[in-house]
Amino acid sequence: MKLINLGETNSILNKFIAQMRDIEIQKDSLRFRRNLERTGEIFAYEISKKLAYTTKDVETPLGIAQCSTHDNDIVIGTILRAGLPLHNGILNFFDDAQNAFVAAYRKYDKEGNFEIRTEYASTPTLEGKTLILADTMLATGSSLQIVYERLCSDYGKPEYTHLVCPIASQYAVEHVKKHLRGERITLWVAAIDEELTTHSYIVPGLGDAGDLAYGCKI
Description:
By secondary structure, the protein is of the alpha/beta class. It is 32% helix and 34% strand. It has 6 helices and 14 strands. The chain has a 7-stranded mixed β-sheet with strand order 1-11-9-7-4-5-6, sandwiched between helices. Helix 1 (12-21) packs antiparallel against helix 2 (29-48). The longest helix has 20 residues, at 29-48. The mean pLDDT is 93. One of its GO terms (molecular function) is uracil phosphoribosyltransferase activity. It comes from Candidatus Merdivivens pullistercoris. Its EC number is 2.4.2.9. Keywords: Glycosyltransferase, Transferase.
C-alpha cells in the first residue's frame, strides 16, 4: 500500500484543514461542509494524475482537437454520514462516476469497548473498476478496513483503490498498512496526528466530523 500525505506540501489544502480544525470556525456548519467538499475536490484532482489516459479526437465547431481523457471506470464510495461532503467534492470532479454508500458505526458495550457494524450498503459492482473510498477521519483504521473488505467480498474486487481520509492517526495508518498489505491501494491523507485517546479519538483531530457537518446525534 502506498501512502500520500498532501499536507506535507504547502498548498491551499492546508488552509481548509486548519479551518476545519478551528473550534471557532467549526461553529459554522455550512463552512465546515464546504471546506470538506473543497478538500474532496483537491484530492480528486491529485488522484486524477494517477489514472490511465488515452488521446481522443474531439470535434469542435472549427476542427478536430486531440484531448487526453482518463479511461478508468470510477466508483466513489463513502462511509456515512461524515463522508458525504467529502464525497460531493470528489464527485464534482469525477461527475460521471458511479456511487456507493456504506453505513458503518461503533457499537459500544458497557465497558466502553466497541465493534464496527456495517448494516447498510448500496453500491454498483466494483469488479475491475477504480474505487475511491472516502471517510473524513481515520482513527483506528478498523472501519475503513472492514468496509473495504465487505465491499470486495460482496460486490467484486476493484482493479485499484484510492482511500481518501483527510485526518488520520499514526496508529490507523499503520493498521491499514498492515491489514491491506499487498493490495493495489493508495491511502491519501492531508494530516497525520500522533495521539489516539483510550476512546479512539484523534488528538488534536477536529472532533466529530459528522456532528460538525450535520448536527449532534442521540
